[in-house]
Amino acid sequence: MTPDQRRGFVEFPADVADSYRRSGYWVDRPLGELLREGAARWPDRPALLTDTGPRTYTEMDVAADRMAYGFLELGIMPGDRVVMQLPNVPEFSTVLFGLLRAGAVPVLALPAHRRSEIEHLAAVSGATAYLAADTFGGFDYRELATAVQAAVPTVRHVAILGEAGAFTDLRTLATDGGALPDIDPTDIAVLLVSGGTTGLPKLIPRTHADYRYNATASAAVCGFGPEDVYLATLPAAHNFPLTCPGILGALATGGAVAFVTDPSPDSAFGAIERHRVTVTAVVPPLARLWCAAVEWEPHDLSSLRLLQVGGARLTEPDARAVAPALGVRLQQVFGMAEGLINYTRLDDPDDIVCTTQGRPLSPADEVRIVDNEGKDVAPGAEGELLTRGPYTIRGYYRAPQYNAHAFTADGFYRTGDIVRRLTSGHLMVSGRIKDVVNRGGENISCDELEEHLSSHPAIQHAAVIGIPDAGLGEKVCAVLVVSGSMPTLADIRTFLSDRGLATYKLPDLLRRAEALPVTAVGKIDKKTLRSLLQR
Ligand code: OOB
Q1: How many other CB atoms are there within 10 angstroms of residue 270's CB atom?
Q2: Which of 112, 180, 454, 496 has the fewest CB atoms within 10 Å around its CB?
Q3: What are the backbone angles phi and psi of residue 308, rounded to the nearest 5°?
Q4: Looking at the whole model, is its pTM more than 0.90?
């Protein structure tokens, strides 16, 4: 790791790292080698399925190397952070592997992120480059690139997939080269973006060793093998479709990967049929939509063996509907970009699969369930989930103050999720104590949104809360104390978009209040606020 990359990175303690290595959880090979090992084992098998035909493991491996040489030639140095913001296109995988092999650290931004988030991610990571598609979903990322470069001077390079205009064309970068840098598996491989609880999104440093284990152990639990075809339905930059087992899990086990940019039944069912997809992952609202859509979308889904659902709580009725509607096995996944992933197992009884959110991936995952005072609760009782293990971070990147309360002194991550544990080890998620709204699997930091709202000239105080919603689980409600006339929802949404906020974070509902209830210590009392609104 370069000294610049190391700054603000909380490493695993040396003795713990040694024990993970000795137990075989960590192997001393970098993440970018997964594909090279795949090419050695399954040279002619398809690795990537695209609308213009398949690419074999060998072809992808060569493409990844050429991409890596191209990045180095452009001036991206080993250790550099690179904000990568691509939609679910086949190039996602070659760009990712190219960066990994060049020793650069992709900062995996979601396509939905806008100026506010991207500038923040680039600034905190000290990124030297920004990679994006020209346009996607009606949004022009070249304009965003211009704004990011103007605001964050470290961003020296911009490469664009598609019509690059004044920027470097990502497609013409690939080139032949001599040597690639050596990579230490304990270095940061990728920086994931957290849903965040306070302020702007946090960066989650995942090392080569831990992230590789995340992918391979997940692939084993999900029974991945060379016959599998994984469809990236959710945004590929998210931990769930990327590595749980996702794209990386499929490529680690000889399977093939396909991408869709649009998760609607119309588009995704077509892709499942065309590519004979066996596994994919969705969030609960999408699972429910897919179950309904089999009535009107006449596609052959018979290849699908496993539907993973996670990111937000799946209700029991929705869980029970999956197998009969889609003819697949359901798997509930309760995970987090910070690390810990819980899966229901393929051989779990149906009742467990439909009523729990799974159990930890690794025998080395440590789970504690604690009360308000941090004491372990009685077996089976509810409490906050704390966790530590071979693929759970020990700290957010460059966030020492935040880390001081997000982690315990002995390195457990405070998830902010309220769970209870069955004797089988399966967890049931019953709530959360962190101040986020989970809108259909997208976590939105209330704090971040409140800060933006407070900068509106008419708004004196703002509180953001989640309102239960049958479709999305929760909707974003902004409660405003205003001077003068109340702005409309459309006004507020435009105001926030103009500030560069991602669309999924915009409020769905507005409520006016004369004052906000406060707790004894003077914090906004969201519990009271929620009950006032639901009356
Ligand atoms: C996944 O990761 P993140 O980082 O976007 O969000 C994590 C948070 C969890 O702490 C929890 O609050 C919530 O999202 N969550 C769930 C859940 N899965 C995630 N809440 C209830 N039930 C579930 N099944 O969302 C993520 C990462 C990897 C795999 C799957 C999901």
Answers
A1: 15
A2: 454
A3: -90, 130
A4: yes
362-415 residue pLDDT tens: 999 999 999 999 999 999 999 999 999 999 999 999 999 999 999 999 999 999
Calculate the alpha carbon distances from 261 to 89, 250, 283, 320, 411 in Å: 7, 19, 15, 27, 38
Please report the atom of ligand 1 found closest to the CA of residue 436.
12
Tokens linked to 144: 């965003």
Please compute Rg for the chain using Cα positions. Answer: 23
In a mutational test of the pocket of ligand 1, which residue from 334, 384, 428, 442 has the highest number of ligand atoms less than 8 Å from its CB?
334
β-strand partners of 468: 474
The gap from C-alpha 380 to its chain's centroid, in whole angstroms, comes to 29
Amino acid identity, residue 114?
R
pLDDT tens, residue by residue, 179-206 = 999 999 999 999 999 976 667 889 999 9
Peptide bond connecting 285 to the previous residue in cis, omega within 30 degrees of 0: no
Q: Which domains are assigned to the chain?
A: 4-418 (3.40.50.12780), 436-534 (3.30.300.30)
Cα separation, 530 vs 534, whole angstroms = 6
The residues near 39 (Cβ < 8 Å, ≥ 6 apart) are 57, 58, 60, 61
Answer whether 267's CB lies under 8 Å from 41's CB. Answer: no
pLDDT tens for residues 234-265?
Answer: 999 999 999 999 999 999 999 999 999 999 99
| Ligand 1 center from residue 239 Cα (angstroms) | 10
Atom of ligand 1 at shortest distance to CA of 243?
28
